[in-house]
Sequence to fold (370 residues):
Amino acid sequence: ALPIYLAMSGENRENTLFYSDIPKKINKEALLMLAWKPLLDSFQAMPDYRTYSREEELLRERKRIGTVGIAAFDYHRESGTFLFQAGSGIYFVKDGGAHEFTKQPIKPTLVETSCHNIRMDPKLCPADPMWICFVHSSDLWISNLQTGEERRLTFVHKESANIEDDPKSAGIATFVLQEEFDRYTGYWWCPRTEPIPGGGKILRILYEESDESEVEIIDVTSPMLETRRADSFRYPKTGTSNPKVTFKLSEVTVDADGRIVSVLDKELVQPFEVLFDGVEYIVRAGWTREGKYAWAVLLDRSQTRLQIVLIPPALFIPAVGDTVERQRLVQSVPDSVTPMVIYQETTDIWINVHDILHIFPQTNDDEIGR
Fold:
């Protein structure tokens, strides 16, 4: 076994990746002391000490992160791929998987990009670890670790200098979800791909789209006094409007050589508020292990009703601007394709949200365990 963890070495104050070798045979009578070994080779995670983008600073505040360096990492066990954000870049290393575990520290590889702003929340595709997804300027992008191909998936954010003119985002958890419900991501890779003729496949990403048009904008004086400026933020005060949210689905078709053939953006067949009446917050989301359903934990505004729902991918239709074409697509969806509420809880007080939820593999089409 080879546990991986984030820690701070005695040489500097940066978080980085360490590992420990666990012997296959252990003397139960003896105390086992594990040695810390660095996984990364002379890697300076923060070239500019304590220099963060505005997005990073806000996220660090909401996560209560006080350390510098690597704050989180993603791991694909079968391929031995580690992915993490460090400084202004995204990096990956390979260790284990189909190969032997390293005996020496590994030099990380930078994921090259054409993006001009910070890339955040990088995640490996569990069905094909050559593909990663990340958030750039409030929109979703994907990139191939092997070929370097990069593609923007969503186009909801305009990168306007005026916050009032740019209320939408894709793949991001808004302030309330981060601060009150500890959800810090807004997109989820499907764990399975769909094969297509010719050796290609379809990758799917469920994501949350937010519209903060009705959320109040407040001005906060910068803590950096020498800048003498005020930052504008959207802040939903108690009793005022929250962001309008919905689920969307991005389908990426790649050919047998791993090149992107097409990207299709899909939306729910009916408005979110119609399909999920009374829901205010998407507090958790993901996919079942087989990729047959997306799942979500939904909460009303008073936090007295919680639902766990299954969402079939067939509930999404291509997002088109033509009204007649959209109506044709809506009519093509069978009436049997609907969200399924598999659990509901109500209370007179409030419901605490947690992460103690595990959906078991589905062995019977008519049953699902949690």
